[in-house]
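During data preparation, a discrete fold description was generated, as reproduced here:
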Amino acid sequence: MYQISNLLDNDDILVTASQGAFTVIEYKRDLSVSPQSAMNAYFCDAMNVRKRQVLCDLSKAPVTVQAGAMQWMVGNVNATTGIKGVGDLLGKAVRGKASGESTIKPEYTGNGLLVLEPTYKYLLLLNVSDWGGSIVLEDGFFLACESNLRHKTVMRSNLSSAVAGGEGLFNLSLSGNGVVCLESSSPKEELIEITLDNDVLKIDGNMAVAWSGSLDFTVERSGKTLLGSAVSGEGLVNVFRGTGKVLMAPVDKV
């Protein structure tokens, strides 16, 4: 048995979201500062730049996390590589090389508590079932997910997106019923969710955070002709076509 004090019962800590095995906490003030960093901390607080962490309750579900994301764990927690044989290792190596994600994502099981490294980015919890049972993530956003979700790499519909659209050629896709945690440079309050019903969304810039796996993603000219694209000043745009949802940041992702 274990008991944790001065974490969730700390008046400096706010629970901002909770879903599935994950709880997101935010530190209202950064008290671990020196005189040299106090001014920085003061202005960070004014601009909502705060430390945030994810707590994973493994009694609710085993979780898979980005390599190197674990900070501490307590209780009955077992860490594995999540690899099931040589074939699985080769598959994950290929998928990791293609999508830019780490090849091995540790899997944690048991009934204890796993706490991930603090970050100044915003932490988003999405239930994949709310996205039609399949969601595609932009590179660098994945932090953790419930381990029952299936991972695979999806490829763009056309090769031009790799070089012309500001996007990678491959992306990580998660499918099934479970919760995924994303790291985002924009807060949930500023993210725009667009639902398409057999329609088209065109975005001039690298702003899509995640989208339904049912959508077809391509990079196309903004106009029907090269002249039309030149006149509009937009050139190439990222196009999402079909039925599903797109989560979009208000500015290019950094």
